[in-house]
Amino acid sequence: MITLDELDKRILQTLQLDASLSNQELAERVHASPPTCLRRVHRLRKEGVIAREVAILAPEKLGLGLTAIVEITLDHQASEHQIAFEQLVAKEIAVQQCYRVSPGPDFVVIIQVADMAAYHALAHRLFATQANVRNVRSFFAINRSKFETQIVID
């Protein structure tokens, strides 16, 4: 774990809201000099605190209107079987998140697809044709009332 001072925390909180800021704009918002900001951001990237910077898209504007939250239980839960399942879902671009969980199912995955037909095709590929998948329980989002990527930094 890395130790963060108050300036690091202000930089991270600001970048979580808008990573497209120029170094000059970032420096102004966090009340630091541009060279200091540049050096700090570089260090935070190098140490892996800033894992990556991305654009967050509106799926409904792109015709990806169905979000599925899916619980998966495997027949065999040995580490190699869990890793194999994780590798399988990692290849699917529609799978946005995959969590190994406990207790309950073995995995929870978040899937974003165009419609129910696209979900059915994906579910067939990922779940129905896999011998080690014992149970699949799917929930379909009817409304997204909150979606955040920001991590609270104390």
From TrEMBL:
Alphabetized SUPFAM superfamilies for the sequence: Dimeric alpha+beta barrel (SSF54909), Winged helix' DNA-binding domain (SSF46785)
Domain of life: Bacteria
Name of a matching Pfam family: HTH_24
InterPro entries documented for this protein: ArsR-like_HTH (IPR011991), AsnC-type_HTH_dom (IPR000485), Dimeric_a/b-barrel (IPR011008), Tscrpt_reg_AsnC-like (IPR019888), Tscrpt_reg_AsnC/Lrp_C (IPR019887), WH-like_DNA-bd_sf (IPR036388), WH_DNA-bd_sf (IPR036390)
Residue ranges annotated for the HTH asnC-type domain, each copy included: 4-65
Keywords: DNA-binding, Transcription, Transcription regulation
Name used for this protein in its record: Lrp/AsnC family transcriptional regulator
UniProt lineage: Bacteria, Pseudomonadati, Pseudomonadota, Betaproteobacteria, Burkholderiales
